[in-house]
Design brief:
mainly alpha; 67% helix; 0% strand
Length: 73
């Protein structure tokens, strides 16, 4: 499971890199940056709970999602 989380993190970070580059309107890339930040936060939550996906459901609270999306924007 750790390998899959690491692989997902690498791909999300690779996808979010060009979103911060020059030539891209920051207003148009804001939703994509927010989704990348939310995905990375979810992966961090999975790691923090020692990959206990089969034992319980892991999720971000709505308030935390808003906070992460606002910071990413």
């Amino acid at each position: 499971m750790a390998h899959e989380v690491r692989r997902a993190r690498e791909r999300i970070e690779a996808a979010s890199g060009p979103l911060r580059g020059r030539g891209i309107d920051p207003r148009l890339s804001r939703p994509a940056r927010a989704l990348c930040a939310l995905a990375l936060a979810t992966l961090q939550e999975v790691e923090d709970e020692h990959y206990a996906l089969l034992d319980r459901r892991l999720m971000l609270t709505p308030l935390r999602k808003v906070w992460i999306a606002w910071r990413a924007g």
